[in-house]
Amino acid sequence: MLRRAALLLALLLPLPHRAAALPAETRAFVTTTDFSSGGLRRIDLDTRAVLPGEAPVHTDTRVRWYNGRIYVINRFGQDNIQVVDPATLATVKQFSTGNGSNPADIAFASPTKAYVTLYERPDLLIVNPQTGAALGSVALGSLADADGIPEMDHMEVAYPWLLVALQRLDRAHGFVPTDSSVIAVVDMRADTLAGDIRLTAKNPVTPFVFSSSFGQLLIGCAGAYGALDGGVERIDPIALKSNGLCVTEAALGGDIGAIAWYRNDHCYAVVSDASFNASLVSWSAIDGTKIATVYAPGGFSIPDIGLDDRDELYVLNSSFTAPGVWVYRAGADVPIAGPLDVGLPPNQITFDRVTTDLASVPPAGVSLGFAAPRPNPARETVRFDLALARAGEVEVTVFDLAGRRVRTLAAGPRPAGAVALAWDLADAGGARVAPGLYLVRARVPGAEVTRRVAVVR
Questions:
Q1: 88 and 218 fall within a common domain
Q2: Which of 299, 321, 351 is the C-terminal boundary of a domain?
């Protein structure tokens, strides 16, 4: 079943970073901690100014953005999800994931259905993120090692599939990697385990990132800490398999802690050496070589990095002597701002990314609706339902995965309401496009939605 449906997996992968022509993100959100208290701060991406206001959060967090809300995963010792209004930093909801569950990540199927990985449990939790009510679970214990706990960590949504990284560590011997680590593939329509992808390296620790040129997901695997046995692994979203490592820890010079993709010939990773000194390095995914050490503040002091849609890399320095957020120009590897003072040492970062999965009719406060293409995969003609909350300029454009414009389907003023669009799978010159994945972007002032279309023979 997985191979027959595998082509659909790539339709909702994260957008290729180079595809967006104009910045859509406006703010960065950074959690901070001194290990006795924690906070959530905001950075304006235009001015790089730290905005006033702070929300109290746990000392051990991860942070995600979805559908106009910030989701703070308060981890070990708190075991809850904190939903924060980005405008006021007020907590609008906070719900438990179960005492001792240690939530690791949250991923969304819709505004009313989300999945939470629980590091101390064998079952993936399903919740309504608006109410906090538990909706069920997905058993992943069959993929665990001998201790029965799969150590589920980061997730990636590629509807109808949910990819869940399982570290599979030996708890009885200091959480060392066992024989292998895997990516669980969950069918979000039935909430069942549909299969798994066995990884070449062990102990996946970073979020998934997407390389548009490769058309593949990347995930950093740390292996055993202190041993250069990990690397950055490529996951083929079409065949649902690992394509091995595109760079090794030996080439990077340390244990991997975070990664960011800018171009295939210029990526980033945070690594730590045998003395736990962290550094930010640039590297090439084409030949698997390290390019340069970009930033080396000393100590175990770079907990996270984040690349915005302006080609700016945000680097968090969590040291107690010189904490702050540095901003680098991606590709040039030069600092352009920082250190930005966010109060306590920074810990995790995310951005207010545009939600790319809206209903066919815009909900209140949403200016653009762009329904899923049908049929998909497409052989002849694919159709889209476009809905505008108000009249205005609209552009609907087809791109290939390298970001090249293939065809403009609509451009100019449109009245409010719904309209049906169609693409006959031809390029601007009238020739049929080659089979593969294409991005169809609908854009109005202040909003954009991108859909994936698989073209087959």
A1: yes
A2: 351
> Per-residue confidence at 3, pLDDT binned at 50, 70, 90?
very low
Cα 413 from Cα 394, distance rounded (Å): 6
Rounded to two decimals, what is the model's pTM? 0.77
Domain match, 174 and 206 both: yes
Tokens (6 digits) for 327? 């901003």
Q: Name, in order, each residue with C-beta under 8 angstroms of 234's C-beta and a sequence gap of 6 or more.
A: 211, 214, 216, 217, 218, 242, 243, 244, 245, 246
pLDDT tens, residue by residue, 182-214: 999 999 889 999 999 999 999 999 999 877 566
CATH of the domain at 421: 2.60.40.4070
